[in-house]
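Per reviewer request, we include the raw input and output of the structure prediction for the construct analysed in the revised manuscript.
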Amino acid sequence: MLRNHLAIAAVLACLAGPALAQQDSIRLGMVLEPPTLDPTGGAAAAIDEIVHANLFEGLTRFAPDGSIQPGLAESWEAKDGGRVHEFRLRTGVSFHDGAGFDAQDVVFSLDRARGEESTNAQKALFEDIESVEAVAPDLVRVTLKGPDGNFPWKMAWGDAVIVDPASAAGNATNPVGTGPFRFSEWTQGDHVTLTRFDGYWGEKPALASATFRFIADPTAAFAAMMAGDVDAFPNYPAPETLPQLQADPRFKVIVGTTEGETILSMNNANPPLDNVKVRAAIAHAIDRQAIIDGAMFGYGTPIGSHFAPHHPDYVDLTAQSAYDPERARALLAEAGVSVPKLRLALPPPPYARRGGEIVAAQLRDVGIETEITNMEWAQWLESVFKGGDFDLTIVSHTEPLDIDIYGRQDYYFHYDRPEFVALMQQLKATIDPTQRSALLVQAQEMLAADHPAAFLFQLAKTGVADARIEGLWENAPTPANDLTQVRWTE
């Protein structure tokens, strides 16, 4: 009898083992599939949402609160009034293919990003670099054309990650970085899987693997969460179902903020959008709260310029483009130009597709007709972002503190106002925090008065996760799903 009891106990122990074992894999839902896995060669935020901080690392990195922390550089120092920046590199770091990391990799990566052949979507981050020197295997000196107190912050962007010269050319489909996870597989149209890198230099992640599943349809995203087909959806596309998920003890809803200024971009180079009165009329025709309520189910913060409300230098300028259809019609009459049917290009995210229908109806109410074209992400990047072939489009600019894009020559909305360009140059050369704050306020006010876009709302970060998961970012200081601190609690 005792022998039978022991045998039964052994069988029960074996059966219980897997149930009691700590989970070490996670399945995350994503709305968009990235066109490539190389963050240094594409503009899509979906790239960074998979690889940034997980597979690739930069000299510095964003903390969850948006502050800058050491990355591959353990420390740094500004010299010559902010014109020279020296980065002390970590030692004992290797790439996923076994290649060693040192200062020469930093020189290669920064020179590649700023070179004439560069396809980096944020080439402006590197345009002020005069030279990059490997002073020693663990020391890099970056000399700029002028002072830039924000340079360490720029090095935290996904576009500034460090790559290996030997593997850089293949990073689009077989990415090789220094991060805590390495590339495992990409089944296009379905998922990307990363696995833990045992040779990682830093703290080992609790997760052994992470699979990013692409689920574009909001209804399918809800079904996947309810069925347990995904464990978390960090940027959940169906806010209308959040109350139902919040009431279910299996899940937790994580609501935070992002760096995503969601705007109705206008092609300032195309008549009649080159007329400030026409642009102002469009801005006054928009009811921001109706878009937030109708497209985002109440999640989002109205903005009146291209600046995040959680930033300490934010100024609330929404009153300068308040919803006022009568004012919009009067401005169109004052402009004295004929407004043809405008082409409204909409990428896949729900904020754009749902919001675009509302915007079209609001513009129609003041006499502006639109022709909506729904585009896939790759098509939008090619024809709108790169080609500038559009009149209006809705997109969320998720890069942190990116007000300077309005000062970039040939940027897709072709604002190119010389006074704003000069203001951005002044900001770049300013080190004093108080003076920088004043310039940022001035920049916000200039955009609010000039209406190069209709500023809609700051995108909320609405995520859903299995209640047992901890460590997912609440806020998004940069487009990333940083998994370094994610773990199952039971």
